[in-house]
């Protein structure tokens, strides 16, 4: 009798555990635009984070908005699903040409939905069945690839860097073990995905006027060039375009889009900081390098190629307003080569408020930049990794095509850091160490 009771209790516990495991699930079938949900007592912010991940949207919410959701349904159209999930809150889903849709959640007016909801960072993800490898000089890469049963899909023979593609996961894992024990291999690692950049929101008005900056034509020597490793940079108008050098593309051609890109926003923020640091006129130029190729994410391989391309074209400052949880030894090697050439690098700390490094900002020698929300306070989204080197404002205003935009994130703070350094380096007699020391004193991490 007691044994039967114990068994019943055990089975009941299993059922309770199974039901608990099934709660707070959200499945967004993107191909059919249908949603399944089982959500019980979930607060608004984690709910919106789940939607950001599941739907792949950029989401903005009106500050101080709260809501508790309990809903269970299957196969609802996304509009009906949002009504069930958001209850009496207002929302608007805005599609974007060749871009990620934007969802605005608000109590009063759509224009007040200004705080971005950043999807929680997942563990480091890598491209399936790919490995990146750096070989010793003189090593026959083609012969090695043939021996491993791999296809070389990308190469930089000058640096000995190669991108290898395998047929399946098992052959990839086997090759990784062989390459790690091969004396001709200097580094080997997965090809990690980078996080999508933070969303950019159009505004009806901005608290600052459009940027005014005059170009002092740079001389033949001593040029200050900021390598912007990012998305493609669009036209910022006749006056500001004078500061932008011809773009380099390492990830393929980009189709024209009317939506502002993250690269365009970062270029504008860099120029804004240059104007502040130099007094309104400067000879600093920006060398844009597109490592996204029109996609919402990039990889360690493209970032490594982008860094090298910027250095090869004269960049002596690098802005890395991007990041990944994956630490690629191959990318680390390219960064180390640039640092050995006395290149100054600024890298974003990441937009997840956790104590975890983001790369390449966390690579030793790169000046890691986190974001301030209010003076003396880290922004609520900002990574607070203990290795952060400096903290700058995380909100930037951009004018593109006559329309004002706002962008928030540690990528914005990084762009400001790069621009301030470049503006000072191009207009003062201070050396590299003096400028960096002054910046670390002025912009400490709280």
Would you write up a description of this structure?
With 446 residues, the protein is of the alpha/beta class. Helix content is 31%, strand content 28%. The chain has helices spanning 2-22, 44-55, 78-86, 141-148, 169-180, 238-241, 262-278, 300-312, 329-340, 410-427, 432-442; strands at residues 25-29, 34-43, 58-61, 68-77, 90-94, 102-106, 115-117, 126-135, 151-156, 161-165, 185-192, 200-202, 214-215, 225-230, 248-249, 281-282, 285-290, 317-320, 344-348, 367-374, 377-378, 390-393, 395-400, 403-408. Residues 1-22 have low confidence and may be disordered.
Summarize it.
With 446 residues, the protein is an alpha/beta fold. It is built from eleven helices and 24 strands.
List the helices and strands and how they pair.
Elements: H1 2-22, E1 25-29, E2 34-43, H2 44-55, E3 58-61, E4 68-77, H3 78-86, E5 90-94, E6 102-106, E7 115-117, E8 126-135, H4 141-148, E9 151-156, E10 161-165, H5 169-180, E11 185-192, E12 200-202, E13 214-215, E14 225-230, H6 238-241, E15 248-249, H7 262-278, E16 281-282, E17 285-290, H8 300-312, E18 317-320, H9 329-340, E19 344-348, E20 367-374, E21 377-378, E22 390-393, E23 395-400, E24 403-408, H10 410-427, H11 432-442
Parallel strand pairs: 3-6, 13-16, 14-17, 14-18, 15-17, 18-19, 19-20, 20-22
Antiparallel strand pairs: 1-2, 2-4, 3-7, 5-6, 8-10, 8-11, 9-10, 12-24, 20-21, 23-24
């Amino acid at each position: 009798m007691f044994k039967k009771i114990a068994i019943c209790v055990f089975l009941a516990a299993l059922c309770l555990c199974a039901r608990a495991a099934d709660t707070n699930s959200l499945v967004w079938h993107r191909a059919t635009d249908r949603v399944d949900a089982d959500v019980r007592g979930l607060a608004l912010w984690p709910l919106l984070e789940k939607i950001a991940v599941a739907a792949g949207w950029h989401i903005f919410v009106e500050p101080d908005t709260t809501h508790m959701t309990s809903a269970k349904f299957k196969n609802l159209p996304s509009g009906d699903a949002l009504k069930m999930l958001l209850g009496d809150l207002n929302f608007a889903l805005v599609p974007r040409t060749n871009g990620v849709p934007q969802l605005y959640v608000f109590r009063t007016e759509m224009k007040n939905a200004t705080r971005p909801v950043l999807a929680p960072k997942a563990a480091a993800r890598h491209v399936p069945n790919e490995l990146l490898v750096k070989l010793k000089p003189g090593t026959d890469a083609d012969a090695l690839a043939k021996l491993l049963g791999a296809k070389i899909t990308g190469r930089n023979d000058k640096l000995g860097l190669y991108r290898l593609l395998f047929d399946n996961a098992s052959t990839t894992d086997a090759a990784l073990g062989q390459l790690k024990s091969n004396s001709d291999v200097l580094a080997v690692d997965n090809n990690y995905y980078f996080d999508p950049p933070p969303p950019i929101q159009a505004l009806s008005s901005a608290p600052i006027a459009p940027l005014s900056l005059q170009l002092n034509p740079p001389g033949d020597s001593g040029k200050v060039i900021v390598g912007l490793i990012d998305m493609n940079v669009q036209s910022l108008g006749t006056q500001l375009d004078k500061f932008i050098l011809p773009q380099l593309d390492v990830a393929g051609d980009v189709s024209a889009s009317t939506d502002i890109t993250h690269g365009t926003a970062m270029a504008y923020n860099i120029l804004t900081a240059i104007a502040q640091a130099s007094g309104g006129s400067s000879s600093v130029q920006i060398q844009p390098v597109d490592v996204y190729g029109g996609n919402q994410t990039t990889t360690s391989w493209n970032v490594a190629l982008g860094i090298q391309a910027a250095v090869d074209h004269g960049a002596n400052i690098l802005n890395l307003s991007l990041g990944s949880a994956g630490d690629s030894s191959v990318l680390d090697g390219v960064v180390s080569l640039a640092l050995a050439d006395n290149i100054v690098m600024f890298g974003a700390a990441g937009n997840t408020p956790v104590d975890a490094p983001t790369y390449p900002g966390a690579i030793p020698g790169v000046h890691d930049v986190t974001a301030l929300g209010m003076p003396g306070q880290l922004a609520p989204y900002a990574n607070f990794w203990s290795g952060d080197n400096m903290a700058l404002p995380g909100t930037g205003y951009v004018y593109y095509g006559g329309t004002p935009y706002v962008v928030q994130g540690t990528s914005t703070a990084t762009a400001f850091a790069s621009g301030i350094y470049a503006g000072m380096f191009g207009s003062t007699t201070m050396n590299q160490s003096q400028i960096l020391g002054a910046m670390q004193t002025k912009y400490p991490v709280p």
